[in-house]
Design brief:
The protein has 13 helices and seven strands. The protein is an alpha+beta fold and 331 residues long. Bound molecules: glutamic acid.
Amino acid sequence: MVQGIANWNTGETQEWLQQYVDDWVAFYRKHTNDGNVASYIPILAEADPDDLGITIIGNNGLSVRSGDTEIPFTLQSISKAITFIVACMERGVSYMLDNVDVEPTGEAFNSIMHLEMKPVKKPLNPFNNAGAITVTSTLPGDTSEERLEPVFQLLEKILGYRPSLNVDVYESERESSNRNRAIGYYLLEVGFLDSDLNATLETYFKQCSINVTLDDLARIGLILANDGMDPKNGEEMMPRQVARLTKVLMLTCGMYDASGKFATYVGIPAKSGVSGGILAAVPPRVRDETMPFTDGCGIGVYGPALGDKGNSIAGTRLLRHIATQWDLSIF
Ligand code: GLU
């Protein structure tokens, strides 16, 4: 599918770039057969496993969209990055770092075991479920609506519209939430939660169920790539310190227990979710000028067929290919 690409400064188009991405999306679409859609949240199993799409938005407005770019999907674990940013903005970075550590676990995202195996004073990082539920417990407010309001406000500021809650996904997750409730009760037992467990879990299920598109992920990635600033108008969307810390966590913990491999072979701060989305932030780099996006870009990838670690299988391979070819790695 060829869609227009344009640079918002010059109006210039680059057809070769579009053709290149189209060709590789077609190639990696076959890799969706190597994965499976998530089914532990029943409604997620309804996604089409063959879907694959990518949106890239560059700092100068150059953008490329290819494949299934119009399908809305829910944030799932990508919401953990957003709520961490909001919690840092609401409660302060030092408060958040007192409540949650910044260490990769090497365990599955929904592991409870790692909390018991070693004596820890706080959950190991904000991007596994234990840490994310803890982060959600720090959001101010009594009800899930009150707690999510600053999350929706930040998204609205970045995206230019207020995303919707997918009530069907929320209810499906809520009804199949035994494991997250178990994690929540464990966190309550050891004193890691900052507020009421039930309101925290309700907020968590809802944050995971916010609808987004690939353009939305690319736009959030672009803001992170620019340390919190919108490159279009210079407006600060989040403090620089918060954006930078979030990128560190994305790089070290953002791709579940495949984060080390992703950092090694792709080398871009990224956060995935079990709906099949990947949010990636590519900061400006000093590189060969002929490479596209040397001045940075945000990337959104969608491919609901997941590999064994819970990341989009074809999406990860597509991202690896493009990052290698265009030298997008931050290292
Ligand atoms: N809502 C999902 C859960 O808590 C998010 C997990 C994910 O995307 O990794 O199980």
